[in-house]
Amino acid sequence: MCGGPFHFSGGQVPLLLRFREHWVRPALFFGNNPISLAGGAVTTASGVTMIGYWLIELLGRSNDNPYLGIIFFLILPALFLLGLALIPVGVFLRRKALQKAGQIPAEFPKVDFNDRVFRHGVDIVMVATIVNLMVVSVATYRGAAYMDSPQFCGQSCHVMNPEYTAYRISAHSHVACTECHIGSGVESYFAAKVNGTKQLIEVSTHSFASMAKFVPDYPTPIPSPVRNLRPAREICEACHTPAKFVGEKLLVKSNFADDEQNTQTQDVVVLHLGGQDSLSHLTGIHGVHLGHIEYVATDETRTSIPWVQRRNADGSETVFAASSLKGANPPAGERRVMDCIDCHNRASHTFMTAEDALNRAMADGSISPTLPWVHKEGLALLKADYSSQADAAVKIPAQLEAFYRSGNPQVLATKADLVKHASQKLVALYSENVFPDMKVTWGTHPNHIGHMSYPGCFRCHDGDHSTKDGTVITQDCTACHNLLAVDESKPKVLADLGIQ
Ligand code: HEC
Ligand code: HEC
Ligand code: HEC
Ligand code: HEC
Ligand code: HEC
Fold first, then answer.
1. How far is the CA of 474 from the centre of ligand 4 (A)?
2. Ligand 5: residues whose CB is within 6 Å?
3. Which positions ≥6 away from 160 have C-beta within 8 Å?
């Protein structure tokens, strides 16, 4: 045997030698085939592209377009791995083909570490392997993080557009979707990913499914409540502490009338929110429901609740049944212990009613109440049928302008700016709440807080749920709030409080 740095006598370093004889030589021999070479090329190309993107990101030039995310965090890493997988596949196929033809050489072409070119080749392979391992681990990490980001959950999938839009303008716009919908624990993580993948498949097959009716299609609108991604009480309580709920909450709401002056009236309400006080007494809206009230809902949206049961301090149970229900036995349906989302079912995805949306915009001045008839006309424009959000964005401004041009041309002459602002705001309100392609429109997702637009609290507090001895779940207005003013113009109480 000849000398040199890589040449030892067999007895000294048999491992290295055996590695060279049994692995390096055959690998080089079999690896020299089109499939393995193509695999190497795919891996190198996608790896270099990803590294380039990461460098651009490090320089702060990134762009949160969700489709770029899909390419860089999901598709390229997949190509990268595919390329890596092709290399052994090519080796295997070539070996099989040669074996069949009886062409496997008894001895593979010599691997000579004295050959500088060959030695550098081996160095490159080793460095490439280390780089590949690094790329795979960074890509896996980035891909997982990306799949948890609101961009991925809400934006890359147009099906979630209504929920994502509402989320972006909610108090929770900085809370990741996964904080509420997945929570902690490996089990819930995988449950969510499996469900997400099913939805991805449903969405990708949607166009096909509409032609051929046998592929599972995604539902429009996305059904609510979400059975397998339901936020639970612990999830909200990771950030909101019930012990801090204690107190009253002042609520001021403005309503505008359908007359020329858009006459404004206000409701001033003090809600007995309560909670757990320093003596651990449970009081008020937050105090009395959590943990000890159970119900059965007989419809999908949990609006119809004919059976309610309270667990009392002494461990006994009291059943309140709707008069439609004969007897106190629970009917068939979904049985639940009341938690946060039985009232806050639209937390972070609040879709307003057209009336509420418009009243709010007029109260904050973004639609000026000084424009004659703007409440009546605005409401009609918001509630009209449009084929898409883009359609609404064209028609609403055109029709508002036409309305003033034909009826009150002097408004356009003196308040053109206010009219323009009003149109823009109406279009914004429409596109925050109505999504024709997802069949989400005014009222699709009822909000269970309150009782004015939807049954809400009155699902149970309707004066019709009673025990055998005739005690009803209260509908007394003062149990939930003090009504300081209802539909008053310029309520005195607001002036007294120094609010207006
Ligand atoms: C603060 C908590 C919270 C956050 C953050 C949150 N959601 Fe939700 N989401 C909810 C609640 C509560 C429901 C209603 C669940 C129920 O009634 O069972 C819901 C329902 C949904 C639904 C079902 C359809 C519907 O409108 O009810 C979808 C889809 C959804 N969320 C997607 C998202 C996406 C996408 C994000 C991130 C962009 C997100 N959510 C962030 C709390 C949250
Ligand atoms: C990761 C933390 C986090 C989680 C989880 C969370 N919230 Fe919040 N929540 C916040 C923050 C932050 C605010 C904004 C506070 C502010 O703006 O003053 C907020 C505000 C709110 C508000 C008042 C504003 C509004 O939208 O009416 C409600 C109600 C609320 N959260 C309910 C919930 C419910 C119900 C859940 C569980 C489904 C939940 N939150 C989960 C952090 C969280
Ligand atoms: C029985 C119905 C009900 C239940 C159950 C309920 N809430 Fe509320 N919550 C309300 C009402 C009503 C308000 C006041 C609504 C408003 O501000 O318009 C409120 C307000 C809040 C606010 C805002 C407080 C503020 O100062 O503005 C937070 C945060 C909140 N709830 C969190 C929770 C969490 C977390 C849970 C579960 C542990 C929960 N709620 C359970 C009815 C409920
Ligand atoms: C699933 C049924 C259900 C829903 C929905 C519900 N409640 Fe209740 N609520 C009850 C029951 C049951 C009681 C206990 C009745 C009793 O003790 O006589 C109760 C008690 C109360 C009390 C205490 C009443 C008293 O006299 O001390 C308040 C306040 C209250 N609820 C407010 C609300 C508000 C506000 C909402 C809506 C945001 C709401 N509830 C939604 C079932 C419900
Ligand atoms: C079970 C609790 C409960 C009872 C009983 C109740 N309310 Fe309310 N009410 C609420 C809640 C919660 C809100 C706040 C809704 C919100 O946050 O938007 C509210 C809001 C209001 C408002 C403000 C306007 C609005 O659009 O929200 C008025 C007015 C009102 N209630 C009138 C009444 C009257 C009148 C009665 C008696 C017949 C009554 N309520 C009984 C829970 C109750």
1. 7
2. 251, 253, 267, 269, 271, 449-452, 457, 461, 475-477, 479-481, 483, 486
3. 153, 154, 222
pLDDT tens profile 58-116: 776 656 566 677 777 778 888 999 998 998 899 889 888 988 888 877 777 776 777 77
Report yes or no: 309 and 297 within 8 Å, Cβ to Cβ.
no
Give the 3-state secondary structure of 122-161. HHHHHHHHHHHHHHHHHHHHHHHHHHCCHHHHHHCCHHHH
* Tally of CB atoms within 10 A around 116: 9
Cα 171 to ligand 2 centroid, rounded to whole Å:
6
The dihedrals phi and psi of 292, each to the nearest 5 degrees, come to -120, 15
The number of angstroms, rounded, from the C-alpha of 359 to the middle of its chain's C-alpha atoms is 27
249/233 Cα distance (integer angstroms): 22
Pocket of ligand 2 (CB under 6 A): 170-172, 175, 179-180, 231, 235-236, 238-240, 340-341, 344, 347
Distance 290 CA to ligand 3 centre (A): 11
Which of 102-106, 165-169, 201-205 is least confident? 201-205
Residue 220: predicted pLDDT = 73
Alpha carbon of 242 to those of 181, 246, 288, 289, 448: distances in Å? 20, 8, 12, 12, 19
Q: Are 310 and 298 in contact (CB under 8 A)?
A: no
Distance from the alpha carbon of residue 289 to the mean position of ligand 4, in angstroms: 6
> The pTM is what?
0.81
